[in-house]
Amino acid sequence: MMGMPLEKSPEHAAAGRIVEWADQCVQCGLCLPVCPTYALDRNEAESPRGRIAIAAALARGQADPTAELREHLDHCLGCLNCETVCPAHVQYDALLIETRALLGPSPQRPRPWLNLIKRPAWLRTLRRIGSWLALPRWQGWLARQLPMHSALRAALRIMPTMAPAARVRPCDKGTGQPHLALFPGCVASVDDAEAQQAAVTLLQAAGFRVSVLPAFCCGAMDLHGGAAQAAERAAHRVRQAWTASRATQLLSVTPGCLGTLRRALPGVNVIDPLELLAAHAGRLHFRPLAQRVAVHLPCTQINVAHSDGALLQLLRRVPGLQLSTLPRPPYCCGAAGSHLLEFPARATQLRDDTLRQAATLEPQLLLSSNIGCRLHLAAGIGELELHWPHQHPLTLLAQQLE
Ligand code: SF4
Ligand code: SF4
User: Which atom in ligand 1 lies closest to the alpha carbon of residue 24?
Assistant: First the structure.
């Protein structure tokens, strides 16, 4: 097997940190039952404990970074279910980020697609062109002509067929009110603009003033893909935009961006707007809606944003809504940032398992807060002919606002 050189020497300070974190692991195995990739493969190297051992061996220079070892690390979804249950408080997220940075970006990374996704203006233009060319008519046919596991096929399958919503508008009335800044992000600024507008509407009704930062990528896909320099450039841009905003809190409706934004802005209160809305729920009144709704809780909403409780609390205020979360404990739908493009077959297995769970609830509507998860699940809804509409929960709440 061909060895791949480490981008930096194993003696580098990062290697020391990786070893230190890995040494905290007591190898109890409590993280194995909550790991989606271990459930897929039943292979120790596809478990958190196995990946920690691989990272430690690489950082100590005791193993070569072979294609096989790095693939076990690349398969990790970053769902952080393992970190949440770990009794030894191993900092798995930090360990994975540093190990991938040490290895450098994977050769299989679909760079052209990631470059496109990170540029909202290009993405918006492409989506408009797709809409003019009646993309829905030939999208499925074209995807089927492409190699089964190609990133292009995976990207085509998740591309929404509707023209994108208008860019989100700020609410700058009431200068005496607390001033919040909304981070639109990259894909979310195009494909979740409706949810971002819903957040502004709800926050305005709850008494807040909301400005909107320019749309750009927070760097999450680079940070988790081993592209440390690109991630740092994105973090620098986040800090500049945040400073210029003069706001008191930073918000993102995309739980997948929150961890990266917090890392870029230590000391800044970066939260999911659902938390603020739940804390001021008494100011919001909702019209009834008689509907059976399945709520998909993204891993990042549970393990990073910690806003799952706030979300359910708010939805329960809509009279008539029959709410159910997926029956199995927190898992992962397989979207996981760029994972759905890099490993489409694995991502599809996890997605279909998630949708099968949702189907047991016989929903009339599926809600999910993370745009990556929702696009991925939407493709599965189409392929499995389930015919459920899907929304960001904030969109539903804003629609029902009195
Ligand atoms: S739960 Fe924590 S300590 Fe136990 S094996 Fe997993 S990472 Fe190691
Ligand atoms: S982050 Fe998720 S996929 Fe990765 S090792 Fe932990 S539980 Fe498994």
Answer: 3
